[in-house]
Amino acid sequence: MDDPLGAFIPDGRMARQDTALGALAGLGFAVKDLFAVAGCTATCGNPDWAATHEAAEKDAPVVKACLDAGATLVGRTIMDELAYSLSGGNPHYGTPTNANAPGRVAGGSSCGSAAAVAGGVADFALGTDTGGSVRVPASYCGIYGLRPTHGALGLDGVMPLAPRFDTVGWFARDAATLKAVGEVLLPPAPPELPAQPKALAVATDALALADAPARDVLAGWIDRLRARFEGGRDLDLASAETGPLTEWVTAFRDLQAKQAHQSFADWVASAQPRLGPEMQARWQFVTETAAKDTAEAEARRAAVAARLETLTAGGTVIALPCAPGAAPLMDTGADTLAEHRRNALTVTAPAGLAGLPQIALPLATVHGVPLGIGLLGPAGGDRMLLNFAADLAEQLQRDPGTRLD
């Protein structure tokens, strides 16, 4: 089977349908190559991982749920090495093509899954999001994506990176499909949450981290969203108790690195894997951080979680960027890329630290390139976000110029 987008691992294409009946019948889906697929050996973005692990005996429960709902598995997709990057490329397997932004990266680490959906090869795709690996590629590729509430979907049969932040998310080109997948995978919504968001808040400090062209475009779309919420309100995510967002991301990176060391240290020591340049540098940071005292980071995480629980109470959603700008060009310089990544992780860290769901809405473009708007919701508000996205998409389809009121 061909792979014009370079989205799939070598020999990763398939056409597996376990049943023709179910809520997802007629849809094809792809999975990031860190999910267990019966009879297949996941690479997790590194050939030495595949060489030192056995083929899966059974599907990961989330993969099986999609198959049991009638969807057809079309392949396993390329991912950033060990899922520890937002770059959207792999030194061993290549860089998938972003069909909606030619010459630009698809974003990582769920790059192949996002590329497959954006390019029409799959109707939806499973990925994972620890520090933004669904939200960032969704923004770069101009598709929908959901990072669920932490713990809403089980991680059995999924390679761990940082389990206290890892989530199983998914992509789709349209909101109706994104919601349909959620109906299959998600647990029931908490009874105290409304079916639709009740209020909108705009995270001004997060918005300020976007580059100027992106900030202007996002602000325009957020103003259109305000009409659905009687104006909404502006606020800073940060407070005196939490410290600024720059300290949030430092805490996130340290806690993530501690977890990554627990996940990979034994394997790295025994397998001595060939790591690409980015992962080599990342692993050096991990080993240095593993010895650090992270009590301050833990305290900040708790303060952030409490702060965001208060801000999203009662069904409030918070608008913020999914990424600080459009997808970087393939040949972007290392310093520019590093700054972009720092800002990207800073705007994605709040959801991870607080364990909250965030949806990526492919509403905006900057200079003709996709740019997503994020809505951060309360814990358990996954279905609420999906309902809102589906209703908004239907309204925009009826009248693309609507004021959204």
- Beta-strand residue fraction: 15-25%
| Beta strand count | 11
Q: What number of structural domains do the residues give? A: 1
Radius of gyration: 20 Å
- At the fold tier of CATH, the topology name is Amidase signature (AS) enzymes
Instruction: Quickly name the level 1 CATH class.
Output: Alpha Beta
Tell me the overall shape: globular
N-to-C order of helices and strands: EEHHEHEHEEHEHHEHHHEHEEH
What does the largest sheet look like? 11 strands, mixed
State the end-to-end distance.
46 Å
Superfamily (CATH H level) name? Amidase signature (AS) domain
Number of helices: 12
Q: Structural class of the secondary structure composition?
A: alpha/beta
Fold and architecture overview:
It contains 12 helices and 11 strands. It has 405 residues and is α/β, with parallel strands linked by helices. An 11-stranded mixed sheet has the order 1-3-2-4-6-5-10-11-9-7-8, sandwiched between helices.
Outline:
With 405 residues, the protein is an alpha/beta fold. The protein has helices spanning 47-51, 61-68, 111-118, 135-141, 175-185, 204-207, 212-226, 245-271, 277-290, 295-311, 334-354, 382-398; strands spanning 8-17, 28-32, 72-77, 124-129, 144-147, 167-172, 199-203, 233-235, 316-321, 358-366, 369-376.
List keywords for this structure.
405 residues, Amidase signature (AS) enzymes, 12 helices, 11 strands, 11-stranded mixed beta sheet, alpha/beta
